[in-house]
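Homework-ish question, so no full write-ups if that breaks the rules, but can someone show me the predicted structure for this set?
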Amino acid sequence: MTQTLTLDGVHTHIGRYHILHGVDLDAPLGRTTMLLGRNGAGKTTTLRTIMGLWRASRGTIRLGERRLDGERPSEIARAGVAYVPETMAIFSDLSVRENLVLAARAGLMDEARLAWIFGFFPALKKFWASRAGGLSGGQKQMLSIARALVEPRALLLIDEPTKGLAPAIVDGLIACLKDIKQRGATILMVEQNFRVAREVGDFVCVMDNGRIVYAGDMAALAEDRALQGRLLGLSLDSHQ
Amino acid sequence: MTDIGAALPKPRVDVWPALTPLLVAAVAAPFIGSTSTFVTLTLASLAMGAMLFVMASGLTLAFGMMDVLNFGHGAFIAVGAYSATVVYRFAAPLAGGSLALDLLVFVAALVFAALVCGALGFVYEKLLVAPVYGRHLEQILITIGGAIVIEQLLLALFGTEPIDLSPPLAFRGSLSFGEIAIEKYRLVALALGLALFVAQLVVLSRTRIGLLIRAGVENREMVEALGYRIDRLFVGVFMAASALAGIGGVLWGIYQNQARAGMGGELLVLVFIVIIIGGLGSVTGCLIGATLVALISNYAGFLAPKLALVSNILLMVVVLLWRPRGLYPLGAR
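A: Not a homework solution, just the prediction itself:
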């Protein structure tokens, strides 16, 4: 299978802290790879390093044949990588439309694609001209994801999209992510909610202490409770 | 998704900061007494506020977006004023020919000052500012050093004596309405300040580059992650800020009838007060802040000249006690 995204021995230092200790990771083309692990394991740092927001101090990051390590975030974005940060990072002073206009680097937004996005996120259509800062938490998350979808991308990096959202909103988000998957998007997603990970993920990588300690099929991990307990250190019954 | 239809809270229209200049004028009017004096003082303040706005608006955008404490901003004001003296020297044979010619020379001085300061801003950003992004203490030291170098260069090039920068003949004198006298040049400065305010609002709200600037003020990292070179945007904003300082320098120099190397440094405290009162990064806040500073200066200067020395510091204290992040703060970074 073609490896769309490949990390090979990636190390990242933030200041004097050594966060990633040689991350090896493959995210296959057109599939969703979940990145799981305890708090502080290095999941967000991995996404930010891929996006160029932290500089890899060692190792290589490739998207297809193109090396991403050492490139600026803007160049990585132009290579087709979209990033949905944990903080959502919407521009609250701009309207919903303006947020999406900036995300559509090609200029005009594609009407059909916009209609597809509105199908999932009708609130964005409803509040099209409203200031994004006034949106609810769930609506802001929709906008943050919509910003990554407004143009076709080779790879979506999504960091904890369900964090802090009500269960009913999480269900809607799962449906959305599944549809994005069906359209052939390649996704690398950090998620703490194992139910979401199980429903959306094809593959899983588990991180601990800045390294990948397990990589395999999501379905296999979902069925092996002993492995879940060992890798993730939690009783998944309480998270389902 | 469940809350797709949830209504947004009604956006709070925050009109109180915009009304503060009216409030200040209303409070001052009974103390001033004479209507003609009050109107004259108020119009003079609005003109002064417009000039302060032009000088400060670039700094507020650069400060809000780039998080750069540019203590050298005042030097660009002086460079703008000296640039105008160069244009006026070359255009001396045309001066006083007609209103159209005076206007043409005035516009040429503004454009030349903007170009010179924009170009100088490019060099200044590359040489001094870019190496110290995110390091405030070093920014303060290096930009003060840059300002000293520019000031000394102006003294070396133009001499130590102030250079005459009188208003064009067409802009001299006053218009009288009964007992109210308004200097023509102040009306020109007011009109230009308002035009630049509208132009900035249009650019910021209607153009892609404006959206990027507003987005960059709020979250630079995300702008870069969307595929835009934030460093190039920084340079562009810094050049525009320098050009606006230059235009402000022309206006202020003509208002003061002279160009001096130290004029920018003297204005810098006022400019910083304006952008702090207005809210860093906010163009509208900058206009309100500049108007307030000018009104308080002129009213206090008329009513209690000794109080005028500290009036703007007091104004800043009062505003920050009321609105700790300024009158129109933008989203926190």
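Now go work out the reasoning yourself. Hint: The two ends of chain A are 31 Å apart (CA to CA).
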